[in-house]
C-alpha cells in the first residue's frame, strides 16, 4: 500500500510541477518535490506577494496539534497504551485519527509555517475543516487542499468546459473513489466499491446543497449547513475505513511504529 501511495503522490507531484512552467532556482524545485506535501506548484515555485508570515500563535497551534496526534497514537499502540489489546478496532481508529493530527493537521502545518517564514508561499493543507458550513466548503476549501490544487486546474476545469460543472464534479469525485479503492480496498482485500460509493455520496451531497430544495432547507450555510456537512462526511466515513482495513492494514502499521505486535 505504501509503495502505491508513494507512486500516486509523486505522480501527482509530476503532473502539477510539469504544468506549472515556473522559472525558479533548482533548490526550490527540489524542495517542492521532497520537502513540501502540497500540490500548488505555481504558488510554491513562483511565490505570491506578499506571503502571509506565521505568527507565534500559529506556530504554537501547529505544534499543539502535532503533540495531540502523537499522544493519540501513543495511547493506541504505545507500550503503556491505555486502550488495551482487547479493543483492536477502537485502537485502530484512535491511531488513525492520531496520525492525521500528527501529520496533516500538525507536522504539515509546521512545515507550512517554516516555508512561509522563509518567504515561500506554502499555505496550510488543512483549513479548520470542522468549521465547514457545507460539503462543498469542506472538500473545496478546508480539507486537504493538496487534492483540490491537483484536481481543480488539471481535471475539473477542463471537464467543466466540456461537460458542465455538475458532471465534471461527479467525475472528479469518482476518480477520487478509484484512488481510494487502490489505497484502502485493495490492501485490505475487502470493501470493494465502498470508497467509490463514499465519494459518489459526497458529489450527491454537494448537488443537493446547490439544488432549490437544498437552498430552501438552508443547506450550505449556517448551522443547518454545518450539520449536513458533518453527516455527509464524518457520518459516512465508515464506508472508507472498513473493519478489515483497520484491523489488517492500519493496526500492523501502527504496531510497527510502536515496536510491538498487532495483537
SSE topology:
Blueprint: H1 2-20, H2 26-34, H3 41-46, H4 56-77, H5 88-117, H6 135-142, H7 145-163, H8 165-188, H9 194-210, H10 212-217, H11 222-233, H12 243-258
Helix pairs in contact: 4-5, 4-12, 5-12, 7-8, 8-9, 8-12, 9-11
Strand proportion: under 5%
- Give the CA-CA distance, first to last residue: 21 Å
Number of strands: 0
Task: Give me the number of helical elements.
Answer: 12
Q: In this structure, how is the largest beta sheet organized?
A: none
Secondary-structure element order, N to C: HHHHHHHHHHHH
Q: pLDDT under 50 segments (min length 5)?
A: none
User: What structural class do helix, strand and pairing data support?
Assistant: mainly alpha
Describe this structure in words.
The protein is mainly α and 263 residues long. The chain has 3 domains: 1-47; 52-126, no CATH class; 129-258, no CATH class. It is 71% helix and 0% strand. The protein is built from 12 helices and no strands. It has helices at 2-20, 26-34, 41-46, 56-77, 88-117, 135-142, 145-163, 165-188, 194-210, 212-217, 222-233, 243-258. Helix 9 packs antiparallel against helix 11. The radius of gyration is 19 Å and the shape is globular.
Amino acid at each position: 500500500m505504501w509503495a502505491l501511495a508513494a507512486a500516486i503522490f509523486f505522480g501527482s507531484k509530476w503532473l502539477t510541477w510539469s504544468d506549472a512552467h515556473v522559472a525558479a532556482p533548482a533548490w526550490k524545485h527540489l524542495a517542492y518535490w521532497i520537502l513540501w506535501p502540497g500540490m500548488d506548484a505555481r504558488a510554491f515555485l513562483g511565490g505570491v506577494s506578499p506571503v502571509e508570515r506565521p505568527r507565534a500563535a500559529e506556530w504554537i497551534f501547529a505544534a499543539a496539534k502535532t503533540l495531540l496526534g502523537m499522544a493519540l497514537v501513543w495511547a493506541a499502540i504505545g507500550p503503556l497504551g491505555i486502550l488495551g489489546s482487547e479493543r483492536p478496532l477502537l485502537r485502530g481508529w484512535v491511531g488513525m485519527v492520531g496520525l492525521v493530527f500528527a501529520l496533516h493537521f500538525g507536522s504539515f502545518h509546521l512545515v507550512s509555517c517554516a516555508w512561509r517564514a522563509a518567504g515561500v508561499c506554502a499555505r496550510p493543507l488543512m483549513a479548520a475543516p470542522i468549521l465547514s458550513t457545507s460539503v462543498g466548503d469542506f472538500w473545496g476549501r478546508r480539507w486537504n487542499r493538496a487534492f483540490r490544487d491537483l484536481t481543480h486546474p488539471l481535471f475539473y476545469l477542463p471537464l467543466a468546459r466540456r461537460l458542465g460543472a455538475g458532471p465534471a464534479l461527479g467525475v472528479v469525485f469518482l476518480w477520487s473513489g478509484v484512488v481510494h479503492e487502490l489505497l484502502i480496498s485493495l490492501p485490505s482485500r475487502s470493501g470493494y466499491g465502498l470508497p467509490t460509493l463514499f465519494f459518489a455520496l459526497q458529489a450527491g451531497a454537494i448537488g443537493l446543497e446547490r439544488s432549490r430544495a437544498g437552498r430552501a432547507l438552508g443547506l450550505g450555510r449556517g448551522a443547518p449547513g454545518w450539520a449536513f456537512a458533518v453527516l455527509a462526511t464524518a457520518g459516512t466515513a465508515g464506508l472508507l475505513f472498513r473493519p478489515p482495513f483497520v484491523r489488517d492494514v492500519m493496526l500492523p502499521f501502527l504496531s510497527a511504529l510502536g515496536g510491538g505486535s498487532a495483537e
